[in-house]
Amino acid sequence: MVDRLRELVIVSGFNVYPFEVEDVIAEVPGVTEVAVVGLPDAETGEAVVAFVVAGPDVGHSADEVQEIVIEHCRTRLARFKLPSRVIVVSGLPHSATGKVAKGRLRALARSETLGLSAESGSPA
């Protein structure tokens, strides 16, 4: 229960549960894995950031996958729950127990924001 509370993203005072956004993004054809985290944001307090793994047979560029995911989310989620960023990666990092290592994803997103990441395709 503590882990779930820590994952809660508060956008402009509204609660966003990552699993809600993840479930909607998982509906997008070709998305094989997804993880959602919250990152500090000057305007809203926190921002929703989605990491998406697209299957090898998707046939879309990373930019196209981002657009498809955003458009799908616009039709299924409240505005405050929309991801402010969608980052397409080749795979998600997992802990020894098989859970997505969201702390590593937060670090990756922060480094990309600062322009430190050489490649957005690999979170590991």
Describe the structure.
With 124 residues, this protein is of the alpha+beta class. The protein has a single domain, classed as ANL, C-terminal domain (GMP Synthetase, Chain A, domain 3, 2-Layer Sandwich), CATH 3.30.300.30. The chain has four helices and five strands, in the order H-E-E-H-E-E-H-E-H. The chain has helices spanning 2-7, 18-26, 62-76, 102-113; strands spanning 9-11, 14-16, 31-41, 45-54, 85-89. The protein has a three-stranded mixed sheet. A two-stranded antiparallel ribbon has the order 1-2. Helix 3 (62-76) links the parallel strand 4 and strand 5 (85-89). The two termini are 26 Å apart.
Please name the defining characteristics of this protein.
124 residues, GMP Synthetase, Chain A, domain 3, 5 strands, two-stranded antiparallel sheet, alpha+beta
